Amino acid sequence: xxxxxxxxxxxxxxxxxxxxxxxxxxxxxxxxxxxxxxxxxxxxxxxxxxxxxxxxxxxxxxxxxxxxxxxxxxxxxxxxxxxxxxxxxxxxxxxxxxxxxxxxxxxxxxxxxxxxxxxxxxxxxxxxxxxxxxxxxxxxxxxxxxxxxxxxxxxxxxxxxxxxxxxxxxxxxxxxxxxxxxxxxxxxxxxxxxxxxxxxxxxxxxxxxxxxxxxxxxx
Length: 219
Description:
Layout: E1 2-9, E2 15-18, H1 23-28, H2 30-42, E3 50-55, E4 58-65, E5 68-75, H3 80-98, H4 115-124, H5 128-134, H6 136-141, H7 143-146, E6 153-156, H8 157-162, H9 167-218
Parallel strand pairs: 3-6
Antiparallel strand pairs: 1-2, 1-5, 3-4, 4-5
Helix pairs in contact: 3-4
Domain Longin: 6-118
Organism: Hydnum rufescens UP504
Membrane topology: Single-pass type IV membrane protein
């Protein structure tokens, strides 16, 4: 289920809004909320726009849209599709209500009033069966981005925060993989072309010789 949500400005990690959590949730998720602050500080223009970071019994999912980071903490078993569908709904409403003001605010939690919408939306996503039913249209809209959940970068919190790994490095790795994949596709095309040339070269050569012979014989 969705446990807690926080929204921050990507450029400087300034918190803009957060869900109002009860005392028990605050205690349970204290460490993970500290981790979310570290994640916000690691965000750069080259960071992956969608990422799921596993941390113990929970997963921190974040979405970056227009210099705003939407991060939610869910149970580890909670479906990633639903987590990102939830974040996408938040991002669209937040952009509509506060979009032009994001770059101008200077104090933390300037948009605390957005908590009402976050809590209302989170309740729809608390139960996976209910969330799946109520978010079908939203998931259809996101199908192009989320149908293949392997596109969402997944990282372990320990690797990300304590072993010197970075969101930039994750982005570079993703870019490198795409580049290597393109190289392999190009190599495959070249191999296929070479094989086709080897297959048809004798036939073409014979045809040219035959044409030359006919030209010499009759002209």
